[in-house]
Design brief:
The chain has one domain. The chain has 149 residues and is an all-alpha fold. It is elongated. The chain contains five helices and no strands.
Length: 149
């Protein structure tokens, strides 16, 4: 059987992608199996940073009073509160995805394999939510700097 050059290149590309996917899956499965927490180191770091940002946003979203005698929020404070609420919603979504890819019993090989597979398949979703959170973080910092002037 003779393949034309483009078919051979396509086949080689598919094989490389399969090997790459398999190696990531095996590596993540091994890491999850050895993990005490049931989550990969990378996802654990994302989880910790997201929880910290969520705590900050919870405080900012609860903003009710200004330094003035009225109970109304200034434009800047209202904008900050809305940003914090949006950030909190995104962090809830990211933490939900991370909970979904945490092994409840990390010493079971089949479960760690399934969780590793979910983790690899949801990597794009996690990265998208991280990117959105980073944007929120930047906007929050900018708003806080503007308010401090």
């Amino acid at each position: 059987m003779v393949l034309d050059p483009f078919s051979a290149l396509g086949l080689a590309s598919n094989i490389v992608q399969f090997v790459d996917f398999s190696s990531i899956l095996i590596s993540d499965s091994r890491e999850l199996y050895r993990s005490v927490s049931g989550i990969t180191i990378e996802n654990g770091e994302v989880k910790e940073a997201t929880e910290e940002l969520q705590r900050l946003c919870d405080r900012l979203a609860g903003l009710r009073m200004t330094s003035s005698t009225t109970n109304a929020l200034s434009k800047e404070e209202e904008c900050l509160r809305k940003l914090a609420i949006s950030c909190r919603e995104t962090s809830h979504a990211l933490l939900s995805v991370l909970r979904d890819i945490t092994a409840q019993e990390p010493r079971k090989k089949w479960q760690t394999f399934r969780v590793a597979l979910k983790s690899v398949l949801k990597k794009d979703q996690i990265q998208e939510l991280e990117k959105k959170l980073d944007s929120h973080r930047s906007q929050l910092a900018l708003q806080l700097m503007a308010m401090s002037r």
